[in-house]
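B., you asked whether I could sanity-check this one before it goes into the benchmark set. Here's the sequence:
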Amino acid sequence: MEKNTLQETALALASADRGILAMDESIPTCNRRFRKLAIPETEEKRRQWRELIATTPDLAEHIAGAILFDETIRQHTGDGRRIVDVLTEAGIIPGIKVDLRAHDLALHPGEKITDGLDGLRDRLGEYRSMGARFTKWRAVITIGEGIPSSGCIESNAHALARFAALSQEAGMVPVVEPEMLLEGTHTMERCLEVGERVLRELYRQLAGQRVLLEGTVLKTSMVLPALDCPKQQTIAEEADATVRCLMRTVPAAVPVVAFLSGGQPPELAAARLSAINERWRATAPWALSFSFARAIQQPAMEAWKGEEENRDAAQHALMQAACDCFMARRGEYAG
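And here's what the prediction gave me:
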């Protein structure tokens, strides 16, 4: 493990007010989004979509890193270049999602555990040789009546810590992602309580696995009320609750907190990120960044619709969404 390289890569993923683009949707997830727009659900269309993203001119002005899926890191552009090489040459650091998928956690109704540790050391070696410089693992935390349980939190935090240790052993920066889902009726206060429990356990487990915190990125949820909660807060209240949760749980040694969008509308995700930075950028010990998927991709996919003639319009929409997030990182998103 090269500590200096890990630290440099982690810092680079948030350099110059840029963030991380999550383009690591699994085949079923990508196909579901295609289906809603009547785009053919084929490998070739997925390849074209990912090529459109990777070849967007000047994307590196706003995006420092891109998380790929296993299918994507093996794909090529129409003119024969590897997509991972296109990103690297543009100045975007390629990363790779390495968890497999979430399954039901035994004896814990309504809760999930993420699989993928078996054989991970070998897969990491392959991805490193293909050009990936960072990795990502997502844990799913559902908030509901009586959940999440301690067993669910501990199991997922341990898996995240094992993944992080293996990633650093392979010379790659781990992006650890505990996601608190927005579905349900829970309040912002309940989300804050769960967020604190999850992050405290996560950093306990990371310490136990001897993970170098300076060589990691935390990708986590904002503290928000659930989508169907009757009590909604102002964006300023959400920003303060989010940073309060981080201040109580995340060590200052962590260089970057990259928020996930979790299905928020693009404009709302950017507005919330902007409020966080406007209020806390000057005093927070970590870079308050973004690692959005749909919040950046969705406007572009809607413009593209799977048609080559819409390519320029789609790339323009992608750049606009990325620019919005870039401005939000500076606390200057106007909406």
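One thing to flag: The first strand starts at residue 19 and ends at 23. Otherwise nothing jumped out at me.
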